[in-house]
Design a protein that fits this description.
- The complex is a heterodimer of chains A (380) and B (78).
- By secondary structure, chain A is α+β, with helices and mostly antiparallel strands.
- Chain A is built from 18 helices and 10 strands.
- In chain A, helix 1 packs antiparallel against helix 2.
- Chain A is flat and about 105 Å long.
- Chain B contains 2 helices and 4 strands, in the order βαβαββ.
- The chains are: A alpha+beta (380), B alpha+beta (78).
- Chains A and B meet through helix 2, helix 13, helix 14 and helix 15 of A and strand 2, helix 2, strand 3 and strand 4 of B.
Chain lengths: 380, 78
């Protein structure tokens, strides 16, 4: 007689097994229709197999991870610049990107964001476009022709009326932004439509040229640092892809879906979403970088790396200034990089090496504490 | 301006402050001391959101690609 669901639940309920296994087990048991004795036997077998599949105590998981990520790494293209799908947004991929991730760089070389938008914007291209203008940084050279009038010591800005309308900016907004950010006088030309005259408060030829340069750097609309926004239909909704990343500011824009907005800048994710999100981002970025090149690395290796990088509450790099440089043992650090400095400093401080790790025991020629080397026989 | 709740983001797993009783059983289960937990900083946005203070242990319910769901603990530090 087959068991009912509630009995199965209570039998599986307090097993110390991962959720995935329990779910599969439950589904299969219901499908197969087993009786109580059979289920007990199945549970026994599953527990046994699970125990068998676990990593054994004293196994060197770190070294296995290092090899499992390192070997495919040798097959990666050394330098690839790739256009992610459409609309020519350039992202670093391959080995350079992987190095960037494990080095925990503050800024990736090509920061990009994937911005999901709320439903009302996601279905309407015009609304999505409008939102994109709110985010993309707009500079004066996109809106107007700027000419230097040295004779009258002034800059003449000829605004393109159509572009202004398209981007939803008014002339007053531009005047306000410019006077706000620069120490200048801006007024509308009396004779010509959409022409602005910019004058210095104290006329000087040098300052005029300097101002011509400065005026290009002023962000008139949008978020500074977002160089470009591309709209793309993903499935059945519009998504925004950006060049440049400003997570915090983008999240404040109305219409952005906070729950699904993502950046490839892990440092920014750490600042805004915290350490656990940063850990997830490292896993996601590393997996996709490897996956992009057709390399499959077991996710557990990447999870281990990412856990180690995040275990102290901040994102630390693997390397001299991070994990490897903070090892407790002097010998282990000396074996990694800048050998003499470590030994000298340790000597001056009078450090003691407990010889607990692998590297230091190999250096002094003792059996290492791994596998059978970590087990002792005690005679009673 | 968009008011947002950080915890909505799909990258952030569920964080909660661990009660004393549960903490004891976790410590016993892993045979460790409180200081041996991985750390989380006090100024972490999620810690501030849930209102944990230094010395608390935060229980994190991660979505795991291998196990479906995994529990993780972090000690709140300065």
């Amino acid at each position: 007689m087959a068991l009912i669901e509630s009995t199965i639940d209570s039998m599986l309920g307090n097993l110390d097994l991962p959720l995935n296994i329990l779910q599969t087990l439950k589904e299969d048991v219901i499908k197969a229709g087993v009786n109580k004795k059979e289920l007990e036997e199945i549970i026994e077998k599953v527990k046994e197999s699970y125990e068998y599949a676990k990593v054994e105590p004293c196994e060197a998981v770190g070294v296995v991870s290092a090899q499992s990520i390192g070997e495919p790494g040798t097959q990666m293209t050394m330098r690839t610049f790739h256009y992610a799908g459409v609309a020519e947004i350039n992202v670093t991929l391959g080995l350079p990107r992987l190095i960037e991730i494990v080095d925990a760089r503050k800024e990736p070389s090509t920061p990009t964001m994937t911005i999901a938008v709320l439903e009302e914007y996601a279905q309407d291209r015009d609304k999505a476009r409008k939102l994109a203008w709110e985010i993309e940084a707009t500079h004066i050279d996109q809106l107007a022709d700027v000419t230097t009038d040295a004779l009258n010591m002034q800059l003449i800005i000829d605004l393109h009326e159509k572009t202004l309308m398209y981007r939803n900016i008014t002339v007053d907004e531009i005047i306000e932004k410019l006077t706000d950010k620069l120490d200048i006088q801006v007024r509308l030309s009396e004779n010509i439509d959409n022409q602005l005259i910019v004058k210095l408060k104290e006329p000087s030829y040098r300052d005029l040229l300097q101002m011509r340069k400065n005026i290009d750097t002023i962000t008139l609309k949008g978020i500074e640092g977002i160089k470009r926004v591309v709209i793309r239909k993903d499935g059945n909704e519009y998504m925004l892809y950006t060049e440049g990343s400003q997570l915090k500011k983008v999240l404040e824009v109305e219409g952005v879906d906070i729950s699904r907005t993502y950046t490839n800048n892990i440092g920014e994710i750490y600042d805004v979403f915290g350490i656990e999100a940063a850990r997830n981002a490292i896993i996601k970025e590393a997996t996709s970088t490897l996956g992009e090149q057709g390399l499959t690395v077991d996710i557990r290796h990447i999870m281990l790396v990412s856990d180690i990088m995040c275990c102290d509450g901040e994102v630390k790099q693997i390397g001299r200034h991070g994990i490897s440089g903070e090892k407790a043992s002097v010998f282990a650090r000396a074996a990694f990089e800048v050998t003499v400095n470590h030994l000298l400093d340790a000597g001056m401080r009078g450090d003691v090496d407990e010889l607990n790790g692998v590297t230091e025991n190999i250096i002094v020629g003792q059996p290492i504490k791994l596998g059978t080397g970590d087990v002792h026989l005690i005679a009673k | 301006m968009n008011k947002f709740n950080l915890l909505d983001n799909e990258l952030i797993p569920k964080h909660e402050i661990l009660g004393e009783d549960e903490l004891k059983s976790v410590l016993k289960r892993y045979k460790i001391e409180r200081e041996q937990f991985p750390k989380i900083k006090m100024n972490d946005p999620v810690v501030q959101q849930i209102g944990a203070s230094v010395g608390d242990v935060v229980k994190i319910t991660r979505k795991s690609q291998t196990a479906g769901q995994a529990l993780y603990y972090r000690l709140v530090i300065e």
